[in-house]
Amino acid sequence: MIKKWFNKLRSDKILIIISLVAGVFIVYPRIIGLSAELSRLSMQSEIVEHLSFFVYRYLFFCLLMWILLTVNVRERSSRFFPTGLLKTAFITAVAYGMYVMISRLISKHVDCFTGLLLFQFVVTFLLCAFTGYVLSLYAEQREREMEIEQLKTENLQSRCEALASQINPHFFFNSLNSLSALVRCNKKEQTLEYINKLSDVFRYSLQSDKKGLVELREELDFLDSFRYLQEIRYADNLRFDINIPESKKNRLIPVFSLLPLTGNIVKHNMIDSENPMNVSVFVNDRDELVFSNPVHHKLDNMGERNGLGLSNLADRFELLLNKKIRIEDKDGVFTVFLPL
């Protein structure tokens, strides 16, 4: 909204309105004494002439304010502020000279060299110069903020791409091993289904690497394909219980939010007939996606948890949704809460 307001401020229409309002502020001392000056005039022609000159003075300052504001708004870099300051001072001095010349031509030069008039021109100069400097600082701040946001986006994009690339090496070879096992067992239906799910996983990886947020429905479809491959690999010792209301599936979530959670389960836990893994996925009353699984530590990494994937996930939630994920690891159950 601030950016939109700033863009409008630079338009001629807004600058004219600001100039008209500022002109009232500049000639305000004259407005206060106007009634007293008119009371000293007896002839109607003198009153009209005096009012006409007053309107001329007001419009002159409005025009000067508009010119100075236009110059200062266009000069948006604080690094060139001294140049803009000199330019503003030069225009103000030229305007003062023109005012004196016009006043002399119409025989209204009584106030040309008064302290009040000089004060009005100085105030006009300072007000426009200050406004230009503030706008230049604001413009630079906005540019820095946009650069920071762009860097964040690029960093986030690289993280998403790195996360997606996790599917490729080990997962790819494990999938080929599982596929070859199905072929050897002559399980045609399962083999075809496995190939379809595998293609779905890679298709999602290719199509989503440029996205930031996706609907929960897309992530669940990806999880459905991904979990099928893992369930085949672990001979039904890995099971997913997914219970998500249809009304919640249009909520947004960072892309590849469920991949690191599923990957951590496979990476850090023993999954066999003696240690079956039942993963629960549901939405709680706090509108969080809950991803929960029992903990069966592998012997080679007892107590060790690689937090890189979760740290990456937490950072992406903060950048894209400005929300924090919650992690609980107690009573032999590891749970991650993802805000939707």
* DSSP helical segment count: 11
The average pLDDT score comes to: 76
Radius of gyration over all CA atoms, rounded: 36 Å
Characterize the largest beta sheet: strand count, sense, and whether it forms a barrel.
Answer: 5 strands, mixed
Read across the widest sheet, the strand sequence of neighbours is: 2-4-5-7-6
Number of strands: 7
Uncertain ranges: none
Backbone structural class: alpha+beta
Order of helices and strands: HHHHHHHHEHEEHEEHEE
N/C terminus separation = 25 Å
Residues in β-strands, percent: 5-15%
Structure description:
- With 340 residues, the protein is an alpha+beta fold.
- Helix content is 65%, strand content 11%.
- The protein contains 11 helices and 7 strands.
- A 5-stranded mixed beta sheet has the order 2-4-5-7-6, with helices on one face.
- A hairpin with a 2-residue loop joins strand 6 and strand 7.
- It is rod-shaped.
- The model has no long low-confidence stretch (mean pLDDT 76).
Task: State the gist of this model.
By secondary structure, the protein is an alpha+beta fold. 65% of the residues lie in helices and 11% in strands.
